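[job 4471] stage=fold_predict status=RUNNING
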Amino acid sequence: LQFGFLVSRLIIFSSSPYCCFQMSGEYRYVWRIAFRNFINSLRPRQIRGNAMGTDYIGNKYFEIPAEPSLGKRKPTRWYDPPKGLDFENKIPSEWEAWLRMRRDNAPTEEEIAQNMAMAKMKKENAAKLEAKRLAEGGDLPVAPERGHLSFPKYEEYHAGDPEGKRFKE
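[job 4471] inference complete, writing structure tokens
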């Protein structure tokens, strides 16, 4: 009676695709699983995430929250650029900080509008200060020389010229 129970268990376990026993038909399932995994690897991944917002460029931002019970400590964040644009275009600094986990919450529309207004005000103030400096007689800024020519030259120091012939001629 116990032997019949053991044999029935063996038959039930061996018919499942994830079987540990060497019985006929098991390899058929392994090849099916391998083929299915290969086909799925060729398909683009369809990841579902929570839509977190959009920026003024048209990028859409998504997040999959962290699940510490599954061992996932950090959320997964990404963005999709609008059609015709690629990932090399600039994104707003608030959204970039959110994507790189420097901030916990996604930026709000009000915050982005406030930062844009502040940047515009700073540009206007810089233009006013530049106009005021030029009106007082200031010159346009000159680009500094580069390389070894940018270092000062003094007659009393003759580096590489012990007799000082270079400056006296």
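[job 4471] summary: The helical segments are 2-14, 26-42, 93-99, 109-135, 165-168.
[job 4471] exit 0
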